[in-house]
Amino acid sequence: MKVVGIVGSGRRGGNTELLTKIALDEIKKQGLDMELIRLAGLNIRVCDGCRSCVETGKCHIKDDFQGVFEKVKSADGLILASPVYYGAASPQMVSFISRFYSAPDNVLKRKVGGPIVVARRAGHNFTFAQLMFFFMIHEMIVPGSTYWNIAFGRNKRDVLKDKEGIRTIKNFAKNIAWTIKKTNK
User: Fold this and answer.
1) Which end of the chain is more exposed for a tag (fewer CB within 10 A), N or C?
2) How many Cα atoms are found within 13 Å in the side-chain-facing hemisphere of 155?
């Protein structure tokens, strides 16, 4: 059983990556395998809406998406983590999730996961909802936590000062692991 955490920040080693690592470390403590994937530095183009995938079953764009998609497809769980950019998910994350338009129906159905959002000050509610829509439309199972999976920080490592946010992320990760174990019996 494995969970893949996708870090949608353009900044390596930033707050979003730190929170994702905290979640994945908690998942590992619960006995599951995990993998962190950074979208920073990958070439994942946005869906161009050509709809050729509807006809062929494959996206015509040749970039790094397919390799990441294969890892997500084979995993039992998925975390999508994004900083807030102008009140929404990062451009890297938006490009990544847009490409699931070409994914076969039900490829994520009943996998377990959810979003993690990092905000400096605001925009977290919309970004959280934006990513939740992805999980809902793909019929995924999203376990809750003690609050929304959000933490605050601007400069690198600032997010570590948000104790409530870290507790929420750890609890969310435990609930992901528990749900995956229950659904894989």
Assistant:
1) C
2) 0
Q: Which two tokens stand for residue 37?
A: 């994937």
pLDDT score for 53: 81
Structure tokens at 133: 């829509």
| Residue 45 DSSP SS3 | coil
**Per-residue CA distances from 96 to 72, 102, 110, 126 (Å):** 12, 11, 20, 18
Using DSSP's 3-state secondary structure scheme, residue 164 falls into helix
For 33-74, what is each residue's pLDDT tens digit?
999 999 999 999 999 988 888 888 788 999 999 999 999 999
| 85 beta partners | 88
